[in-house]
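Q: Hi! First time doing this. I have a protein sequence and I read that you can turn it into a structure. Is that right? Here it is:
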Amino acid sequence: MSFTLGGSDANRIMNDRAMEVFEEKTGRSQPANLSQVLPVQIGIATEDLNARWYQEHANMTKGVELIPNDPAAFRSIFDTSQIVTGTRPGQLGIRHPNHPYIVGHFDGIIVRKQATASIPIAIFEAKHTSAIAKWNPPEAVVKRNLWQCLLYMMIAEVKHCEMSVFYGNKEWEIHNLSLADYNDESTLLMSRIHEMYQAILNDAPLSDWNDPIPTVVKLTNEKRSYSFDDIQNTNWYPDWQEAETAFLEHINGSQQFNAAEKKLKGLVPDDANKVEGALVTISINRANRKTLKVNADG
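A: Yes, that's right. Below is the predicted 3D structure, encoded as C-alpha cells:
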C-alpha cells in the first residue's frame, strides 16, 4: 500500500473527520471531487494574488523573501531526498525529515537570503474565506487551518507560519502562528498522525478518533511599536526617509499656511457671502463654509 498523509489530512484528523481519511486511504471511499466546490476553487485561483499581495504589503525586513511553491525554487531550498513530484500540478511536495510518509504541499516558504543559501524561516499559507463576521472571526479561520500549519512547520523545520487571509473582497489580514505557542498540540498532532498511519497499514481504525480535541487559538498581536533601529531594517525604510525629509522641509510653510488661512477666515464679516482681496477671494456658502481661492492675477 502506497500512501502519504498531508496538511488537509491533518486538519481532518484533528477536526472530527479522521474516519474520512481512513476510508479514503484504505480504498473504502473516494476523495471528494472539489473541482466544482466554488469556495475551494476561489481559494486556488487567488493563491497567486495572495502571494503578490503579501510581497507588496507585508512588513518584511531586508533580505527576507517569499518563495511561492515553484519547483525550481523549492529544489534549491530543500534536500533532494525530501522532494516529492507528481502529486500536484506545478507544485512540489516536501517530506517530513524523519517520517517520509508525511508530505506537505505548502503555498510558499519565507526565506532569509544569505551569501550562499536561502534559509527557510517561515511557512506561507494563502487562504480565502468569507468576510469577518460573528460566525467567521479570525480565531475560527485560524482554528480550521491550525493543524495543517503546525504540520507544515514541522516538515520544513521552521518556527513560524504566516497565514495570509483574504476575508471576502475587502479585508486582508496576516496571522502569524508560532510553533512555540502550540507545543502540546504539535505533540498530539504527530501522535494522531502516527496512529492513523498504523491504522491504515493494519486496516484497523481506532474508536476514539472522532472525540473532540479542545484547542485554544493564540493569535499574535499584529500591532506593535517600531523603534528607529527596527525600521532601518525594513523594506519600506527608503520611502520613509524620503517622506520624512520632505515633511521637515515643508513643516514651517505648512504651519504658516494654516495660520494665515485661519486668520483670513476669521476676518470675514458675518454678513458676507464673498470677500475679494487683492490676492485671495473667500466664498461663503449657506452652511457658512468658507472656501479660499487664489485670484488669477494674484
